[in-house]
Structure formats: C-alpha cells, structure tokens
User: Fold these one by one.
Assistant:
Number 1:
Amino acid sequence: MAYIQVDVVSAEASIFNGEAKFVTLPGESGELGILPGHTPLISRIRPGTVKIVLADGSETSIFVAGGILEVQPGAVTVLSDTAIRAEDLDEAKAMEARKRAEDALANAKDKADIAVVEAELAMLAAQAAAARKLSQGRRSH
C-alpha cells in the first residue's frame, strides 16, 4: 500500500511527522481529503481539525488555528501558527480564553483591535468545538 509523508508544524515545534494512508483537513473552501499521489496543491486552511489515518490504520487528530497547506504527490505539509494535539485540547480553557476575548472585544476602540480580537474569537470557537467533538468521540468508543 502507498503512504504519504505528513508533517504538521506550528510556530513552536514539529507536532507530527510520519507516514499516513489518508489526511483530512479544513480547507479554505471546504473539507479536503488527501491520498498518496494527490495532485500538487497549495491552499490556506481554516481553524479546525487535521485528521491523519496512520499506516497501521489508527488515527491521530491535531487542532490547527488556520495556516497553509502544501501537497506534493508523496508529502503533505501543514504550517500553522498554533497546532495542538487532540489529547492536549482543553474545552474549558478554550471557553475561558473565549470569554476573555469577548470582554476585550467589548472594550476594543479601533477597527484594527476589533479585527484582531474577532480573529482570535473565531480560532477559540473552533478550538472549543474541536475539543468538544474529540472528547465526545473518545466517550463513544
């Protein structure tokens, strides 16, 4: 069976590096599924979950706060400012950070501040949703 090399990198560290059968992630205009031999592609990605089906059939999930995707026939590279392994996601912390961001939005004075806080809110909402979805998936197994 053919595999694809997958690298998920954040500003802080390499989060994942390994071979996979299949990768799905939130592309800019919809969900993307990538198999070995995929046509080369560069795209922006939205905040959400990168799901990687490993060579042994197991799955790993990584939350990304948006970023850039590069696909080559034998490799997938995901670059994101923030990438968090599913097991490290904490819905309560994301909701707490979202509340602080909402308070900051209420006190924002100019359009630049508002735009920054709104982008942070969108990322935190996606992070909380990913944490909730992943924790529900763990409970159902």
Number 2:
Amino acid sequence: MSPHERMMREALAEAALAATEGETPVGAVVARGETIIARAHNRREQLCDPTAHAELLALRMTAEALGTRRLSDCTLYVTLEPCPMCAGAMVMACLGKCFFAASDPKQGCCESVYAIPQDPAFYWRVPCVGGLLAAEAQAQLQAFFSQRRTPDAQP
C-alpha cells in the first residue's frame, strides 16, 4: 500500500466515524510526509456550524499543532472533493498538496465545478489529485444518503 493510499484510508475511517454520528461522511487527514498531524470529520450538525467541514477542522488543528498558518510542507487527504470554502482555505493555508477521493460534480472546487487552488488570481497554487480510493468514498456517501432516504420501519 502506498503512503498516499494509507493516508486516504485514515481519512475514510474518519468519514465512517462521521456517519455514525449522523454527519455527512467526509473525513480528512493532514500529514507532513508520512506523519499524520491532524485528522477530522464533518461536525456541522453537532457544532451547529456551517464551517465545520472536515478539511477546515483538520487545517485548523494542523496550524495550531505546528504553530504556523503556512502549511506548505503538508498534504491534505480528504474523502470528497473540497467545496469553495475549503478550497479557498487550502490556498490561504499555503497547503503543499491535496489528494481527494470522490469528485463532487455539484460543489467541488478543485476540478469539477471550478479549480480555486489552481486559479492564477491567487498568490498560492495547491496541486490537487482526485480519484484516490474514489470508489470507496463514493460507496460511503451513497450508503449514508440511501439510509437517510429510506423510511424507518419504526413508528
């Protein structure tokens, strides 16, 4: 197993944890080399916070742990293509690289709808690679939303 695959598997574990908490199953890991600095999953419902996306939480924890907002030697692994807010945060953090699993054709802003991290209007570019363990991440998301759409057998 490659180091990138190992890190994405850690992010998938975070996504699974989010699902058990009733959150959309998105997980993120930030690593420096092969060392995980931070891990997080969506907590928007729990925290009543629209910004509590897995990526933002992981980036915040990483910046705090490293004592810097500049994360140019770090890589973000996330199970779903980052939205505009998270893609913008990656640029503002001067992130080194991002790997994401499933594409998000409705809100993804690393390649699907827009490519904020590569936009020349910004001073920092974040190389992004999509598709790492995409089938597994997509299966997690589909299972979660399928279960939510199925009426409960309980009264």
Number 3:
Amino acid sequence: MKKLLLLSALLITFNSFGQTNDKEKALEIHNLERASLELNGLEWSNKLERDAQKYADFLAKKEKFRHSNELDVLNQGENLFKLEGDFNIKYYMTEASISWLSEKNDYVYAKIGNHKNIFSKVGHYTQMIWHNTTKIGIAYSKSKLGNVYVVARYYPSGNWDGEYPY
C-alpha cells in the first residue's frame, strides 16, 4: 500500500509540473525516490547526457537494445528503456524513469548478488538509488522504424556485487 501511495504522489506531483521539461521530470523522479530513502539527490551532468545521447543514437541507428561495452572504462552505470510501435507518450525520459522506479515493487533490500534471480527485475531501480552515485544524464533517440531508445548514464556506477545499494 505504501508503494502505491508513493507512485500516486509522484503522478500527482508530475501533473503539477506544467511546462517543465522531460529532463527535469526524469531527474525529479530519481531525486524524489532518493529523498524518500534519505539519500543525496543526483546532479544533472551535461557530459553524461552527451554520452547517453551518443549511445542512444547508436542504438536507434542499429535497432539494437543492449548495454554499452564502454561502461567499465568510463565508470558509468547505465539504464536502458525502449518504446516500440504506436504510443502516445510526450516525455520519453520521464516514462523510462517511472518504469525503472516501478521495479521497486519487486525489490528486497539485500546485497547485490544475493538474489541473482531477482536482480534482473530490479537492477534499474538499484542503479537509480545507488548511494555513491552523484550525477546523471539521460537522452533518447528515435529510429527510422519509430522506436524510441532511452539511455540514462550514472556516475559513478552502481550495482556492485557484494554491496548494498544504500
């Protein structure tokens, strides 16, 4: 019930945003959840946004949906989201962030790796709330087929085996 109330509060908050943009809404989703866990908020990074845009463009051009091979070198975490076919969504980054946040419903507080079978269902969420992460950048790209690829980059990366998210 508490989880449902939080999501309802988020939706009411987003409806009151008015003319704020997709980037601000997506950042607010992350930071509201982090605040609910008494974690520091994330700061928007133009560099991470550029890195996310470059990779979103690559995914859209290739019509591929897979994580980047450069993440370890860059010390960046990454969340991906894809919209296919007909959809009536105005804010792609916001929709992706809401999707990642919804994984909280399957999350059980534990060290990463203790519940491998669950991690595939909550890995986006745990990256959103990773305690050492301080910066975020999100971008999207549309493919020729009309698919939308959303990429979020986080610095420093999270989801380390054997560690708690917070």
